Amino acid sequence: MWGRLRRPQQDLPVRDWVSTGRPTQMQGFDQALVWVGLALLALGLVMVYSASIALPDNPRFARYASSHFLTRHVVSIALAFVAALIVVQVQMQTWEKYAPWMFLAALVLLMLVLVPGIGKGVNGARRWIPLGLLNFQPSELAKLAVALYAADYMVRKMEVKEKFFQAVWPMALAVGLVGVLLLAEPDMGAFMVIAAIAMGILFLGGVNGRMFFLITAVLVAAFVMMITFSEWRRERIFAYLDPWNEKYTLGKAYQLSHSLIAFGRGELFGQGLGSSVEKLHYLPEAHTDFLLAVIGEELGFVGVAVVIFAFFWLTRRIFHIGRQAVALDRVFSGLVAQGIGIWMGGQAFINMGVNLGVLPTKGLTLPLMSYGGSAILLNCIALAIVLRVDIENRQLMRGGRA
Questions:
Q1: Cβ(255)–Cβ(285) under 8 Å?
Q2: Which residue has the higher pLDDT, 299 or 132?
Q3: Measured distance CA(12)–CA(29) in Å, rounded
Q4: Nearest-10 crossing angle of helices 291-327, 331-355
Q5: Is 193 exposed, middle or buried (0-12, 13-18, 19+ CB in 10 A)?
Q6: In sequence order, what E strands does 232-349 have?
Q7: I need a surface site. Which of 33, 43, 241, 393 has the fewest CB within 10 A?
Q8: Beta carbons within 8 Å of 131's beta carbon, 6+ residues apart
């Protein structure tokens, strides 16, 4: 075993499934990870209810009951919980086998959402497919599909990872195709997260550092060009840089300015649960993209700090599980886990940055907490996959046979 671990990385045998002949035991779970995930879901449920309870006073939501969004959020969490219990039983070998097909399915759904009559448009964006119980958002599935596909891709390209054209260009084209479809919705925020997942997995998989920085430069240049040639994106940047300017305060910076007011009102310990003023039709999308601002106003700096620490711990723990899998020669599993860590940590960072005025406004939810059935469902499925990686790690370390 020692000799195998000491061999160069490119010669590592890839072992991505474990069978011990015994059923999965609950004590095999990383229980701390489960509890932190459940705590974020529970706090999110409470804050979504608090942020949405006054929405029926708005003529746009007049036909909804005060508990409408709470009920739908509870249903989403219940569905996500059932899906997670099923997914945690699926071996990583199965995910590796079907990774390319999941990526293809995500592409098809991203195309379908753009078809009139199939995709549902809200506020000028066409990002959802109505499915009765929830409006499914294909971009959420695309995040998981890209993490699985990129990890599988790096395992298959392990021998040529130092060669740019053979190792990088096919993956770059795949991500580029996803980007074109997402920008057509438009959903630049989701594209940024997906690009980060793919680039992170390429880097962690051992792609040449110079090539990695070249890809980074190309992506940055692409984002700059999109901003330069899009007037409304330029206006968003200017509004972000000067949110209190009269030109932007009631326009492009309206959400940001009211988000900052909410944090200011919260001070150290907040105004108290349910006592937010900004959620009373001042702060748009308070139960989705700007949930952290309501947390800041009602629970103060202390509440926001707890949420930030929880996401930091969650991301760090997911990366630890991924590194452990790679050390056990399970490269695919390790890269998938770390890709999910990039997804959770990166999206949380962007959402928090937007709410606090550190980053330009983007339409990204806070993972595990914001209202949104598709996001909650895929977030829980992703965490279940990480738990499966951890279960298989523990089985190997207890002497299980591969």
A1: yes
A2: 299
A3: 26
A4: 160
A5: buried
A6: none
A7: 241
A8: none
